[in-house]
Design a protein that fits this description.
223 residues, alpha/beta, Rossmann fold, Arc Repressor Mutant, subunit A, 4-stranded antiparallel sheet, 35% helix
Amino acid sequence: MGARILAVDDEEGILRVLKRALEREGNAVDTVSDPGKLLDGTVNPDLYDLIILDVMMPGIDGFTLLGKLRDRIDCPVLFLTAKTSEEDLMKGFGLGADDYIRKPFGIGELRARVQAHIRREKREKKHAVTVGEVRFYLQEKRIEYGADTVPVTAGEYEICEYLALHHGQVFSREQIYERVFGYDGESDDSAITEHVKNIRAKFRKIGLAPIETVWGIGYKWKA
């Protein structure tokens, strides 16, 4: 499965080139010609694995846009620019850019740089992470699926986050209980069974069944 990439540039021709080139690598690419849409709620930048930003755009330039977004996004950001002075490069890196792609660019270089950042992206997620189609807001302890917020309790959220961030791995009730409630919790691991039952009921209402029982062992979040 490829990465989800957002390309932001006021030139439609460049956006078409970026989309065509990167989708051939198996990625899903969305394009935006109006950078203001990332600030007014029209486009949610949290949903992407990598963002490509043009530096010189009318209304709001790439530097200013990244300055407004960096505190809420964790993904790599690559600037697309013809400005190659050391001062400009240092400014971009200081704002949290991960790399530059210089205009005019070659398709091979573009693909190589993008795929390299996606492969080695291992920074700790501090704000939000998407597992499958479920979005976890790590600081707010909130779960979303599309436009729906899943109304989980604090304990249910911790169980979901733990399983989802280790999706595909199987954990026993004891392991889940110790991770979520600690060794000195006031209940026992049988409480996990009830929590999972409640979580499943809430996800079922939005048509999802992400937690799978592995009989005789425990539970896992479906990969």
